[in-house]
Amino acid sequence: MKNKKQQQLIYLAAASHSGTTMTAMLLGAHPDLCSVGELKAVHLGDKESYLCSCKTFIDECDFWQGVSEKMANRGQEFCVSDAGTDIRTGATPYMLRLLKPLVRSPAMERIRDGLLLLSPIWRQQLPKLQQRNADYISAIAEQARAQVVVDSSKIGIRLKYLLKNKDLDIKVIWIVRDGRGVSLAYKNPSKYADAKDPQFRGGGSGKTQESRRGVDVGAHEWVRCNQETQAVLATMDKRKWIKVHYEDICNNTEETLDQLFEFIGVESKKKRLDFKTVEHHVIGNGMRLDDSEEIKLDDRWKGQLSEDDLIKFYQVAGEYNDSLGYME
Q1: Nearest Cα to 285, choosing from 209, 216, 219?
Q2: In this structure, are residues 179 and 320 in contact, taking their beta carbons and an 8 Å threshold?
Q3: CA of 270: how far to CAs of 54, 224, 275, 279, in Å?
Q4: CA proximity to 193, closest of 173, 222, 220, 172
Q5: Is residue 93 assigned to a domain?
Q6: Is residue 2 assigned to a domain?
Q7: Domain range spanning residue 200?
Q8: Is residue 1 one of the residues assigned to a domain?
Q9: Residue 208: what pLDDT?
Q10: Over the stretch 72-114, which tens digit does the pLDDT of each residue have?
Q11: What average pLDDT score do residues 288-303 get?
């Protein structure tokens, strides 16, 4: 009996507000790739007001109805507004406590895995969760008639378990952005990390996100998320992952895309810079609902972060920011 062919998946790993939505849409504009945003799909909110990037309500979108039908053909009841693909789906309080910490050293991960295996619910649910993710990704590929699916879920704990999925062939793109830009977005996500048109914010509901507590919070999260990504990448074959800077995607778009498409294994000459013209069905960051196709570096932090903000940032993340090449 022949082994089942693995579905190709490109995983975008990054801290929040690092340019993953734009990158995913640029990649998804290639005819051999499909990006629908974050496949963990846990924060869609009210499906009655949530818009797909095609600007159709998510429960009325033909693409997502097609995905649901293809999931049904695989024996999976499915609705994207309640996808059930997150690693914490159905978790008990005991499981949630163990899944909360970020991915760390191999020794610590062995301890985590061992403790999780003490839970009969985890032992029962993990294979079902892996199968559901594999079915979901292959259903998206089938619906889009694409060879490769892009998942911009970003978080390391999801990537850790996807890498154990025997039905998936995974490559990782680690997207790094200057932590000062990320921290500004954390400070005011509605202004710096959502749709430019207020009516499309909050997934299309027009609701704005609550401001967060300060750049120190963003700096801390930025460091932790990137360090978690590094911990996962340390367990992988170096040929299966690549690091790219958000700033290079913006300033040297064609050259950077050529590099990424070569890494993925598809023809770079098919790339499309008019990425909003291509049909997309993306969920996630409000930027997906903007009409503009302008690829422009967002470095507003240079004028918007105060001296006090910068001091707080450097206290938390200055050394790490320098280590990633942001030494200005």
Answers
A1: 209
A2: yes
A3: 22, 36, 12, 15
A4: 222
A5: yes
A6: no
A7: 7-323
A8: no
A9: 52
A10: 999 999 999 889 999 999 999 999 999 999 999 999 999 999 9
A11: 85
Domain count, the chain: 1
Single-letter amino acid code for the residue at 133:
N
Amino acid at 192: Y
Closest CA to 82 of 71, 93, 94: 71
**Chain segment 149-171, per-residue pLDDT in tens:** 999 999 999 999 999 999 999 99
Q: How many Cβ atoms sit within 10 Å of the Cβ of residue 116?
A: 17
- Residue that wins the pLDDT comparison between 154 and 294: 154
265 within a domain of the structure (yes/no): yes
| Domain at 101, CATH number | 3.40.50.300
**CA–CA dist 23, 29 (Å, integer):** 10
Task: Tokens for 67, please give them.
Answer: 């995905």
Whole-Å CA distances, 15 to 36, 156, 175, 255: 18, 10, 8, 23
Between the CA of residue 318 and those of 13, 14, 22, 115, 231, what are the distances in Å? 21, 18, 26, 35, 20
